[in-house]
Amino acid sequence: MRPRVTAAVLAAALTPLALTLSAPGAHAATAAAPYDFNGDGRIDLAIGAPGATVAGKAKAGAVSVVYGSTSGPKSSTRTLLTQDTAGMPGAAEADDAFGSALASADLNTDGYADLLIGTPGEDGSDTNDGTVTIVWGSTSGLSGARSLFSFFSTDYDRYGQSLAAGDFDNDGDLDVAVGSTGPVTLSLVAGPLTKTGPHNGGSGSRNDSWSTSYGITHVSSGDITGDGHPRVVLHGRTAGTDDATTALADLEIGNYNDWLQDLPAGYVSAVGDIDKDGYADIAVGNDRDTSADPAGALGGKVTVVHGGPGGRDTSRTPLVLTQDTAGVPGAAEKGDRFGSDVSLGDINGDGFADLAIGTAGENSAAGAVTVLYGSASGLTTKGATSYTQNTAGVPGGSEKGDRFGERVTLTDHTGDRRADLSVSAPGENAGDGAVWSLRSTTTGPTATGSVSFGPGTTGISTAGTPGYGTALNS
């Protein structure tokens, strides 16, 4: 294992970017929830299209932000972001892949959530050096930006391929965890992070048993130990293979490898308290068949690991779910990709986190989404439901290659304190991509009144294959 490399010596003041920043209106200093960019109590929807063409530059990438309303995401109130947007650092270039990863937190605690955007294809000191952009929230939405500091640019590539935000070093300020490839595969950029202030140091590390060529491919986080300090779930590949590997880490520790707990191997994860016991649980998705990954399953699987005061609660057997599990809709078939994405949120308002599971390979990659509900005894398959584009009330129709369910997110877009179900299908319309949002009710998501929109509706070019919805709120 390689020890963590600190970058405190690089914490000197950085010349602020010359940006025009809209002054926030009067607002309480209470930190906003992630993705509530205008502080109105409704979660907004950020949609990454890293394959989007911008000013003729193929795969430069773009992000649409559709603001929440009492009726859900409202595509008529939106912000389009590219590296050519006024006030954004850099410039749109071919293959930058702006919008490959997204994360959010109220980094400067002004009452408006801020957006972090990963651009792993950005060229810097070398090809595909990568960069991360912070776009600031305000009473009118997102406005103004600066680059997140990059401490070890000569020691990694694809900086920003995965992102998470939280007080990971437990000092009271919000930090950013950034995944990359190369000798340094995970960076911690320490807070506080402000519009014009200095950067405050950071660190970088790697686990030598993990592949440096894949690096940290996905990051999620939450209060798994119940002490108010978030831990992070890290995803990568085993060195010398492309098999998934997953672990729980505490970034407060000088070398996080000294406190690293193995988790069931998978490619994505979500964190939330399913049984309302005060410890967040971890849902890990592995959508590969065993022929492709020994830790997979026929058609894919999701494993739920229970949290506890020591991290992973080893006294409780993890729950393994496939489409052959009793009560789960459908049947496990090769290539279904059950677990292509996972999200945890309280859909019915009962205080227990519920689970949405993407199955992007279902029916020749037309795709599907399954919803299961939390309870005092944990996740239950009672009342489990499945949604496709052929579900009554869901706009459109299922077609081969749509990949409906490639990304899923459970977030409260309406402000009713219930999580709505938003789903992307990056393969829709030959790679244009599209997003759907279904309203929550006390009995689960309803297709009645659901909305759908694609890149053209929110100002993104459909030239090439933008892959709208490749990234959603995490």
Automatic annotation (TrEMBL):
The keyword rRNA processing does not apply. PROSITE patterns: FG_GAP. InterPro entries: FG-GAP, Int_alpha_beta-p, Integrin_alpha_N. Residues 438-451 have a biased composition (Polar residues). Residues 1-28 form the signal peptide. It comes from the Bacteria. Keywords: Glycoprotein, Hydrolase, Membrane, Repeat, Signal, Transmembrane. Residues 190-210, 414-474 are annotated as: Disordered. It holds the Pfam family FG-GAP. GO terms for molecular function: hydrolase activity. PANTHER family: GLYCOSYLPHOSPHATIDYLINOSITOL PHOSPHOLIPASE D, PHOSPHATIDYLINOSITOL-GLYCAN-SPECIFIC PHOSPHOLIPASE D. This is Putative transmembrane protein. The lineage of its organism: Bacteria, Bacillati, Actinomycetota, Actinomycetes, Kitasatosporales.
